[in-house]
Amino acid sequence: MAAVDDLSFDPWDPAFLSDPYPAYAELRERGRVIRYEPTGQWLVPRHADVSALLRDRRLGRTYQHRFTHEDFGRTAPPADQEPFHTLNDHGMLDLEPPDHTRIRRLVSKAFTPRTVERLKPYVRRLAGELVDRLVEAGGGDLLVDVAEPLPVAVIAEMLGIPESDRGPLRPWSADICGMYELNPSPQTAARAVRASEEFSAYLRELIAVRRARPGDDLISGLIAAHDEGDRLTEQELISTAVLLLNAGHEATVNATVNGWWALFRNPGQLDALRADHSLVPTAVEELMRYDTPLQLFERWVLDDIEIDGTTVPRGAEIAMLFGSANHDPAVFAEPGRLDLTRADNPHISFSAGIHYCIGAPLARIELAASMTALLEKAPKLALAAEPRRKPNFVIRGLEGLDVTV
User: Is the pLDDT of residue 207 over 90?
Assistant: First the structure.
């Protein structure tokens, strides 16, 4: 085991947030598992370990299917945070088998490859329209004008949320996702609770409407599965819809702006992409690896586990560093170099194991669609101002990305 007192890993330091990758290199050199006292977690920075632990059933996203808080040596969340935890804890991302298996199976029925493939023309058309508007305006904020509206509209369309109701979705999502950062503040928790209450109330009403008048959408499909006796409770339905909305666009939004910011800083690679649009599929994968939108993923240790001679005890929390794993030189040649032709690219930006991102195929379609539209319709896209990094570590993104066309 190693300690990090003398290392530059500091997820609250703006300099670290600007470029965490040198600190990750130090962590990988220091060891395979590192105790980090400020968060009480065990950091895992290497690709092989992260990949293996994501599939290890001795770890779990929750422990409540096996232990009480007291048995596990943990305290229950504060009572005033109950709306957030009720919403969060009934989504499949934070459940383990058998509940996870049941809910994921139901979602998979409605979230089929055919459904995703059917969305492709809509995604491409919408991406084209958004970029057309950006070009007509002579530029703008790529985050606000393209990166955000595309995946929000797509997942809202899938869920069956009317266009007139979509305004609060992104703010609700941002407030809820604030709780996934390390050691969130009381103010962050209060915003997450309010957003959880408002989002849940909205969905409860929408579910009632869809139950009375089903449509050709994901919520109607999940209601039908529930009503056919597959035991999806209303809370599970609400939590699943929120999870799909939040996970269905947060990563895509941040991957888009992180990716273009990386391209602007690597003009040779951007020139190669402009010259050959067939690079788009490998470019999407490389940009997801190069500046990962989800930097850290947590697991509870359900049974003692040994990593490189160090026993991590039951009740501990492991923080798997996706951003570090995706820059591990044991797996990626010259990991600090952006290479849009990188063919062997086993990045773990979509996780692995039973919690592998169910929306990964859709995210890839969205990222490719927006990139292709920008390459075709805004071939001279250029940075207008240096962007500001969001003060977040776990979910990595920008405050905005101002561009000219």
Answer: yes
